Amino acid sequence: MAKARGLAAAAVLVLAGCGGSSAPAPQGGASLRLALPLVPRVLDPAKATDLPSLNVSHELYAGLTRFSGTGVEPDLAESWDVGEGGLVWTFHLREGIRWSDDTPITAADFKRSWLRALRPSTNAPYAGPELGIVRGARHLHATGKGSIGVQVLDDRNLRVTLQHPVPWFDELAAFPVAAPAPPRPKLYSGPFRLASRGAGELVLERNFNYWNASKVRPSRLVLGTTTKGADAVLPRQLAGPGLPWIDTVGPAPAGSRELPMLATGLLWLVTRGTPLADPGTRQYVAWVITHLDLGTEPVSLVPPEMPGAGIVNSHAPVEIKASPGPLSLTLSWAEQDVGGSRIAAALRKQDARLRQFGIRLAFRPVPTLAQLEAQRGADLVLLGWSSKLFDAYNLLDLFTCGSAFNVAHWCEPSYDAGMRRAVRTLDDEQRWQIERKLVEQLHDGVPAVPVYFGADSYALRSGVRGFSWSPIGFYELRDMTRS
Q1: 110 belongs to a structural domain
Q2: Are strands 257-269 and 384-386 parallel, antiparallel or unpaired?
Q3: For the domain that residue 310 is a member of, what is the CATH number?
Q4: Does residue 346 sit in the same domain as residue 446?
Q5: In terms of domains, do 69 and 152 share one?
Q6: Beta strands of 121-256 (E only): which ranges?
Q7: 337 plus 210 within the same structural domain
Q8: Which of 182, 211, 230 delimits the end of a domain?
Q9: Helix (H, G, I), strand (E, B) or coil at 364
Q10: Are residues 276 and 199 in the same domain?
Q11: How far is 306 from 244, CA to CA, in rounded Å?
Q12: SS3 per-residue string spanning 92-155
């Protein structure tokens, strides 16, 4: 699946005028018209797939926690305890939390919803990646049978036992798939409720039963795809976190504000059935490429916005002993990948320089990511990755022997052992030191070279403010207002 950055943003984001819906707005607060890359069709928090749908679900359905900046904050859970070395998480729900029809939200709503999301018949795309760490969840997700490690202690207390300890279950619990699905249609638990939906438009209004409704500033949000008359043009990427990164937008248009993302564009060096199977040859090719001018700022494996990146990233020099001799290599990438195409073009311009180092590159673009994944015979592949949580572990997990996204087919058992230690290490500083050693192994093994960082963009009409952003791709609309 592609980590797409969506439909192209308008070339000029000078926003004027303000449209509106015919529905009357609640008293107090602004009514804002916002432009999305597409209008979500699926608003079921378990079934939302593309990032606009995930973000709208994030506004309609509250979870135990909520993404905020570089982490999460309490949402329907006011606090939680972590016991048994990170294996058992007990969430304490807020008193008096209610659905939009005033019925109580209880711990049982969470267990019911997680069981539903994990059943194969539900076809919840994020159930496995986000809830699969819960004990018994993978078996239920695969077979439709069995129980999971979720215990309802009482209406306000939920105990979750994991398959093994992880430090970031509070982040996984912030994904919409972990929010309680409504027991009946047209019930909402988040800052907004769905007021109406029509051809190419969704209207959200403030949910006065949300536990923090007094802090929700807009009275109404009108979501559509047109940028004309919009108060804001929201980020354009389409696919959710934790998927391959394909930049289909490119540089931010004039007048917009650029947003960093936890995404890294990678040049993979395929290690099986190619001249790059030899580690020394990979190191030589990687050394040459990193010393070329590819038109990007210095790039590390872990984006600088990632907590601990300054510790985790290793820049130890690699000593190149000798040239491996003339190399003829084939580079593939998806043409829809604007960032990858930019890097490929830069490599074309460096052809003479590459030949000086004994490297001849043949270029083999394919139209789409699906065709890239089916591509055979490439020695080098341009394909990035975006994180779904605020830790380098998610990016480093690409390189394990069993990873389905290990484009290089690189396998080092000691690396996998280090990853098993890292995921079970709750202390950030200790885990970052483990991850630094893993990055050093990647530095020596060279399954991939980082070549650019991903970014998105947004624009606000003059006087509009309050948009906030989490670099894994979730944004917040509840603080938006107009002066």
Answers
A1: yes
A2: antiparallel
A3: 3.10.105.10
A4: yes
A5: yes
A6: 150-154, 157-161, 192-198, 201-206, 220-224, 232-233, 244-246
A7: no
A8: 230
A9: strand
A10: no
A11: 17
A12: EECCCCECCCCCECCHHHHHHHHHHHHCHHHCCCCHHHHHCCECCHHHHHHHCCCCCCEEEEEC
Domain co-membership, 273 together with 416: yes
Half-sphere exposure of 337 (CA within 13 A, CB side): 34
Domain assignment of residue 304, yes or no: yes
Same structural domain, 185 and 295: no
Judgement on whether residues 272 and 405 belong to the same structural domain of the protein: yes
Contact 214, 440 (CB under 8 A): no
Same domain? For 301 and 369 the reply is yes
Measure the CA–CA gap between 386 and 395, rounded to whole angstroms: 7
Tell me the CATH number at 169: 3.40.190.10
User: Is residue 13 assigned to a domain?
Assistant: no
Domain assignment of residue 52, given as a range:
19-230
* In-domain check, residue 287: yes
Whether 21 and 222 have beta carbons less than 8 Å apart is answered as yes
* Amino acid identity, position 362: A
The pLDDT profile of the chain, 483 residues, written as one tens digit per residue, is 333 333 333 333 333 333 333 334 445 688 999 999 999 989 999 999 999 999 999 999 999 999 988 899 999 999 999 999 999 999 999 999 999 999 999 999 999 999 999 999 999 999 999 999 999 999 999 999 999 999 999 999 999 999 999 999 999 999 999 999 999 999 999 999 999 998 899 999 999 999 999 999 999 999 999 999 999 999 998 878 998 988 887 777 778 999 999 999 999 999 999 999 999 999 999 999 999 999 988 899 999 999 999 999 987 767 777 788 899 999 999 999 999 999 999 999 999 999 999 999 999 999 988 888 877 889 999 999 999 999 999 999 999 999 999 999 999 999 999 999 999 999 999 999 999 999 999 999 999 999 999 999 999 999 999 999 999 999 999 999 998
Do residues 265 and 343 touch, judged by C-beta distance below 8 A?
A: yes
The one-letter amino acid at 483 = S
Report the candidate in 441, 396, 445, 385 with the shortest Cα–Cα distance to residue 423.
Answer: 396
Tell me how many domains the chain contains.
Answer: 2
